[in-house]
Amino acid sequence: MKKKAVVATILDLGRQPASHQEMGHAFAPTNIALCKYWGKRDTELNLPATPSLSLSLGQKGASCTLRRIDQAYDTYFLNGQPLELLTPFSQRLKNYLDLFRPADSFSFQVTIQTNIPVAAGLASSACGFASLALALNDFFAWELDQRHLSILARLGSGSACRSITPGFVEWHEGVLADGMDSYGESLKEAWPELCIGLVILTEKEKPLSSRAAMERTVATSHLYSSWPLKVKTDLALLKQAIKEQDFKLLGETAESNALTMHALMLSAWPPISYALPETVLAMQRVWELRQDGLAIYFTQDAGPNLKLLFLAKDAEQVRAYFPGVEVLQPQAT
Length: 333
Ligand code: PMV
Hints:
Blueprint: H1 2-13, E1 23-35, E2 40-42, E3 47-48, E4 52-69, E5 75-78, E6 81-82, H2 88-98, E7 107-114, H3 124-139, H4 146-156, E8 168-171, E9 184-186, E10 194-199, H5 210-220, H6 227-244, H7 247-266, H8 277-291, E11 297-300, E12 306-311, H9 315-321, E13 326-328
Parallel strand pairs: 5-7
Antiparallel strand pairs: 1-4, 2-3, 4-7, 4-8, 5-6, 8-9, 10-12, 10-13, 11-12
Helix pairs in contact: 3-4, 6-7
The chain binds (3R)-3-hydroxy-3-methyl-5-(phosphonooxy)pentanoic acid.
């Protein structure tokens, strides 16, 4: 199994203490991609077909606590509720933890607490797996660096590799078959005035996982061959926008990138649409507000909810036009 081999390589680099701590604990922020990850070059290792760029959401994310328990199987708690062991999320957790068990009989108790809605397109699996990778590092006292922690997080969920570090994070696609050069790295620039508005239209679980939707898009969309060039262009524009603090360039590029990703999905077969009628209404509202002179843009992931992009000076207006919007300023000092 390729994942086991990657884990063995990385753990050889860390400290190898004989035992583990009583408890491991860590927090990881969630992240919103401004240039999306859509399509894999290796489905087992979650290696992306292209690079991507995200913004970590500061204090919004997941906390994970890990203990050893004296029983034959793991137990998982998500936001205070025990998880049935047969749910897809529990299976993903179990498969991930299998990579790190010192012995087959070693069972974990995992408690994950998020302060964002779960499975509502707010990358809860990204911060969930990132917090788990960090909690394992704490529990086993590996003392791994951020690059290797990012690679371990990626093995749980691709976008989790961008949730190890704060601020703007670029996920290098890498070229190596084992993915040792495919990890998230923070840019040095910060943008304290940049705000994200979470427009939650539904908290219902998405009908199709991002993994399945990505695979279908790559396999059936005749537009997919244009995606790597779009990403290359957008990544360069976003980095320029961040460096020059050019909000119009950032917003236009992020919105166009998200819409292109959804256009790829619409052109897949069977077609995929994550939008609800309310999603389209909210997009149209953003376009109208922009016509009227407000600098506001959106991005959308594998779910119907929108994330608005705007600057702190416009927060009051955005609140007035989108009642109930949750405004975050991830890099405010
Ligand atoms: O890492 P996954 O499998 O949850 O995929 C994330 C896909 C998007 O959120 C739609 C895009 C991205 O780059 O985060």
